[in-house]
């Protein structure tokens, strides 16, 4: 019967937001909602809002808020250090990552307690419960359905081969414009690459940060590989599907994303390379 819930990790730098009946707010949506309501927080009333940033795998919901508010939006590699340069340069007010980290320029680190207090400010300002805040946000901006599949302790050589073959496929000249279909839905490829980031402040370069497939409707597939040592590799698959149809905004994420998940698995041959028929963890 509770209307609001929050969870933290051991040191309080990560946070999870829940509404009535365990209504789950994805970190990507949480970041976007805060971005859309920063004016209700006294700190930003004093300092103004400079810009927003998210890690590359994080859902792009905040990008739509940035466009509506005529603010800068930065997409950076995974790793909080990439937000620090932007904060120091005065380009960034709010940032977040899909792994439940949220922060602002009041400090250079992620701050889960601050994020929850910011959410309480939004609730007080709007007078709405969590699920209604999200519904209003989706009605205005559309919804970025998002999930992450983790395949842990996989065979390193097979995973490296999978990523190499996948990269070769997506950077091929004929891949852009290709239509990928599953579950009665079709997705036309707009661009694809192995993500490379050039820091706009110090011009440092971070390359091979994850294979991206971006579709014309704004949907995305991201593949990342980590921990390829003797203990086994972890493959992370990020699936994001944008939906603006009001009739579809309330769908369960697992239902809305199923066609694109199937596309992601078929494109990468992930089950064949990992020998897994399901992920270890779904977020």
TrEMBL record:
InterPro entries assigned: A-D-PHexomutase_a/b/a-I/II/III, A-D-PHexomutase_a/b/a-III, A-D-PHexomutase_C_sf, PGM
UniProt keywords, alphabetically: Isomerase, Magnesium, Metal-binding
GO molecular function ontology, one term from the record: metal ion binding
Domain of life: Eukaryota
GO BP of this protein: carbohydrate metabolic process
Keyword Thylakoid: no
Domain Alpha-D-phosphohexomutase alpha/beta/alpha: 29-141
GO cellular component: cytosol
SUPFAM superfamilies found in the cross-reference section: Phosphoglucomutase, C-terminal domain, Phosphoglucomutase, first 3 domains
NCBIfam families on file: PRK07564.1-1 (NF005737)
Protein name: Alpha-D-phosphohexomutase alpha/beta/alpha domain-containing protein
Lineage per the UniProt record: Eukaryota, Metazoa, Ecdysozoa, Arthropoda, Hexapoda
């Amino acid at each position: 019967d509770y209307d609001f819930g929050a969870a933290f990790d051991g040191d309080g730098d990560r946070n999870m937001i829940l509404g009535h009946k365990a209504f789950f707010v994805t970190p990507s949506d949480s970041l976007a909602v805060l971005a859309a309501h920063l004016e209700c927080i006294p700190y930003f009333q004093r300092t103004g809002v400079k810009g927003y940033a998210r890690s590359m795998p994080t859902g792009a919901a905040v990008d739509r808020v940035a466009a509506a508010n005529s603010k800068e939006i930065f997409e950076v590699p995974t790793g909080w250090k990439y937000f620090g340069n932007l904060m120091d340069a005065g380009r960034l007010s709010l940032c977040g990552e899909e792994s439940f980290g949220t922060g602002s320029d009041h400090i250079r680190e992620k701050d889960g307690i601050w994020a929850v207090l910011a959410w309480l400010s939004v609730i007080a300002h709007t007078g709405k419960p969590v699920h209604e805040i999200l519904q209003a946000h989706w009605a205005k901006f559309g919804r970025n359905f998002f999930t992450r599949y983790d395949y842990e302790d996989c065979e390193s050589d097979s995973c490296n081969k999978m990523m190499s073959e996948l990269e070769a496929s997506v950077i091929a000249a004929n891949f852009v414009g290709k239509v990928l279909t599953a579950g009665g839905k079709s997705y036309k490829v707009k661009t694809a690459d192995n993500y490379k980031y050039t820091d706009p402040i110090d011009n440092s370069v971070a390359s091979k940060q994850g294979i991206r497939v971006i579709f014309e409707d704004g949907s995305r597939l991201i593949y990342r590989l980590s921990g390829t040592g003797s203990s086994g590799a972890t493959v992370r698959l990020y699936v994001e599907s944008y939906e603006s149809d009001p009739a579809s905004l309330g769908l369960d994420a697992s239902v809305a994303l199923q066609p694109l998940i199937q596309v992601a698995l078929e494109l990468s041959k992930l089950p064949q390379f990992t020998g897994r028929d399901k992920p270890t963890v779904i977020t």
